Amino acid sequence: MAFEAAAVVGVRLFDTSPTTLANYVANAATTLTLMPRSVRTATTVIDDDF
Question: Are 3 and 13 in contact, with CB atoms under 8 Å apart?
Fold first, then answer.
């Protein structure tokens, strides 16, 4: 199912070019900066000190 979803949205899962991967990361970072703060999930620190 995940492979079909990736194919539909145009994400190539098995790409070996480092420049292509860098472009994907830069595109994701640009998209996140354009989104409002309420859309981005906040990272919470989990207290797992037992």
Answer: yes
